[in-house]
Structure formats: C-alpha cells, structure tokens
Amino acid sequence: YSAVMNTTVRKLAPIFVALLGVGFSTVQSIPIYGEDSKPVGLSQDAAQSIVGILTLMIFVFLVLEWATPEVLLLSSLIICMLLQILTLPETLSGFSNDSMITIGALFIVVGAVEKSHVVDWMARKTFGTGGSQLQGQIRMLLTCFCLSVFFNNTPLVAILMPVVKDWGRMRNISASQLLMPLSYTVLAGSFGSMIGTSSNLTVQGLMQADRGYSFEFFAPAPFGIVGFIGLTIYQILASPYLLPDENVGLLRTARDRASAMMAEIYITEDCKAAGKAVGEIMTSLGVSPSCVIKI
What positions does the domain Citrate transporter-like occupy (predicted)? Predict the structure, then answer.
C-alpha cells in the first residue's frame, strides 16, 4: 500500500503544482489587496492555524517520502498566497534574496570543483599515509575543517565521504569511526565563514533587510575555531568507545563502490546472447564468471 501511495502522490504532485500555478496567475488579476498592500479576509488566528496545518503536512509528507521538498514548499507558498496570508511582494521576495542567490551560486561552484576532482586531490595529499592512527585522524579532521570554511557544508560532505572511506580502508580504520567525525567537523568548519552554511547566509539576509547591517566574511570564525578544537578533542577521546568498529566485508565494499564495480548490459530480442546463462555470456565476452559478485 505504501509503495502504491508513494507512486500515486509522485505522479499527482506535478499536476497539483501546475493547478496551483494557474490559480496563482489568475489571482493576480483579482483585487484582493487593500490600498496598503496588506492582505484582507483571513484573521490572524485563522492564518496561524492554516500555516500550522501546512507545516504539519509538510513534515508528514517528507517523513513518508510522498513528495519532494521543492514540491511541498512551493505548493505551501502558493497556497498561502491564494489564501491571502502572504502579499504578492512577500511571496516573491524570497526569490530575489541575496542569500538564496548566493547559495545557488555556491552549488554551481561546488559542482565545478567536484567535476575537476580538486578537493579529492587536496584531501588525499593532506590526509597522508604515514604516522600513527591518531596523527592521521587529526590531519583528516583539520583538512575537512579548512575546506568547509570555503565550501558549503552539504555538498562538501558528499564529496569527502568516498575520499574518507578510501583513506580509512588504506589505514585499516573502519568507516563507521570516520564518517560521523567527518560530518560534525564539516559542520563546525561551516561556522568559520559566512558562506560555510546556508544558515549563516539566511541570518545575513535578515540582518541586511531589518537593520541594514552585514557581517564580515570571517565574522563567525572565532566560534567555529573554538567549536572545532573542542569537538576534535572530544571525538578523538570518545569515538573509539562510542562509535562501532565494523569490519568492512567484500559485499559491503561492492555496495559502496557500486558505480565502479557494476555494469548494465541491454540486449535486443534477436541478439545471440538472448536466452543464454550469464556465465556463458561473460565467457563469450572474455570475462571470467568469477568476477561476478551478485546477480
């Protein structure tokens, strides 16, 4: 039932957003605003109740994975517009916010960096393979902290995860003891500059709008450095006891590196390989059947 529900909602979500878009376009021609550009109609209590219901629905839909975040948030925004909870300038103001544009630009920069593998190269060089396990972990955490100051934390974690896993495999360190420290270290480093995390940029935008004041680029750096030092000491001392030391088997490794170790082959009905066993097909291609881990 859950799978059918998920499929149905995913198919209907674009139609629902399209209908809301039509309603959004139609409502612009209706004089629903007063001369002071404030919405009329709903009381404050009613508006708060509707916003609360929408927030609860967003939470439920996200937990059950019935719709994607962008569909839910845009739908809720348009509903608030149609119900006159938000004015037209308030509805569209977020799309012209400097912080949101900066976040979008950062994703473009991170995408280019990811394609160039510059971060991978820097991380592998600075992580190193010599010294004790403690020295290696400190170098790894320090590198992640420095990188997170200049890159948005979410895509940076996605880039560093495979690098940290490979490095831990070379040092015979379980990935379960490295990934959690990686996440928290990048989170601490994101408070080293204004572009490290979306939260900093959001606060920056609110400060500029309300008080006309903006923070310097490294304004939150003292808090980030203190947090990193305290977090590093705690992680080094506590992680051996709190984080599991799981041995990574062959199947687990194959699953983590599926894109590099798996291949899909599509054949037509009139192909000579149609109807043959996988072992026969691989032998005809010059590949040993022993290379197959799982079908």
Answer: 59-247
Tell me, what's the pLDDT at 32? 47
**168 close to 174: Cβ distance less than 8 angstroms:** yes
Check: CB of residue 225 under 8 Å from CB of residue 231. Answer: no
3-state secondary structure 59-97: HHHHHHCCCCHHHHHHHHHHHHHHCCCCCHHHHHHHHHC
Please return the burial class of 184, using the count of CB atoms within 10 Å of its CB with bins 0-12, 13-18 and 19+.
middle
Q: Where are the beta strands (DSSP E) in the chain?
A: none
What count of Cα atoms within 13 Å lies in the side-chain half-sphere of residue 118?
8
Predicted local confidence at residue 289, as pLDDT? 64
- How far apart are alpha carbons 15 and 9 in whole angstroms? 10
Task: Give, in degrees to the nearest 5, the angle at Cα 115 between 111 and 119.
Answer: 85
**Separation between Cα atoms, residue 119 and residue 163, nearest integer Å:** 9
Q: Residue 31: what pLDDT?
A: 47
* Total residues found in the chain within this entry: 295
Task: Yes or no: say if 156 and 186 are a contact pair by the CB < 8 Å rule.
Answer: yes
